[in-house]
Amino acid sequence: MTDIQLYSQISSLPSDLKKQVSDFVSSLKKKSKASKKLKERQFGYAKDFFKMAADFDEPLEDFKDYM
């Protein structure tokens, strides 16, 4: 259904039904906004996802000329 078709159907409704449509649209917007809330990240979710080398803090061989 296109926006124009929807608009023409809503505009043909009596006033009391237009109010109900308006309330329904408001509740849909509220429901949509509530479902978009970001969930907190779980602590430790990336545990064991990557490993650091044992010599991570050691100087790189590429920079030995500059030291």
UniProtKB/TrEMBL annotation:
Protein name: DUF2281 domain-containing protein
Highest taxon listed in the record's lineage: Bacteria
InterPro entries in UniProt: DUF2281
Residue span, DUF2281 domain: 5-66
